[in-house]
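#lab-general

N.A. 3:47 PM
ok so I finally got the sequence cleaned up, no stray characters, all 306 residues accounted for. can someone with queue access submit it? mine expired

B.Y. 3:52 PM
send it over

N.A. 3:53 PM
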Amino acid sequence: MKGSTKEEPVGGEAKATEKVVPKADMDTIVRLIEDIKVPTRRESAFSGLCQQKEYYPDLALYLWHSVGTISALLQEIISLYPHLSPPNLTATATNNVCNVLTLLQSLASHNETRSLFLNAHIPLFLYPFLNTISKSKSFEYLRLTSLGVIGSLVKADDAAVIKFLLQTEIIPLCLRIMERGTDLSKIVATFILQKIISDGEGLNYICETAERFFAVSTVLHTLVKQQIKSPNTRLLKHIVRCYLKLAENSRANAGLRDNFPEELKDQAIIQSLDDPTRHQYDQFILLLTSGNSFGISERPPGASPK
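B.Y. 4:20 PM
back already:
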């Protein structure tokens, strides 16, 4: 299968199946934001703003700078915590919080609100959703939409984002989802890991201890094994990029050579790669076979990926 070099959008938003909603005027947007602070109008406000998000690229600024709005969004998220264990989610409550998460995604992706979003430690409010293990549709929807928020953060290629995430439990959370999640959740979780590894500080963090490196490489190997019968091109793209970045670190390179995922040589997997991914796959194999002869070494923390 041949593919484009353009990076596919990564996120957990549900695709709209209903008719396209026409663009509302600014007065309506302001009213919807004000309605967030009124409990009886909140659900309708969340839904209405999500429908208008694509029309208003600066919606994040209005949400962040309007009094009480962020508090109301976080209150809605926290209200779902008691229903996570034991699992007791309703479709309505889940959909409502996923709309909130979609609005948070706009804050995470906007250049002017991203740092404010991080400084307020808002991503941590999503971790209880990522930490769930129930395979019901409601829980999967929550996990996927939460991953979409983190995916929007890392997609910006902002070193501050990676620095923040490395101080949290995002890597083990992503690894568990990569092992046990649905295909779409695995794709987004692996994308997040790939973006962390692509940052110099993130790569050094993972390769700093044998425990961290083997935790990551073991899960990647498990994913590769799962691809033999039915290769997923989108997931393989992120897996190959993870391996390529790991191979650029001298210690990880040695570890991968000693524990090479033989399944990566399977023709079904190789033939399923699109052209850009196949090129990266060849680079990965070259780095492993050459060892350190190209002068591969750890990048200093914060260095930009090549």
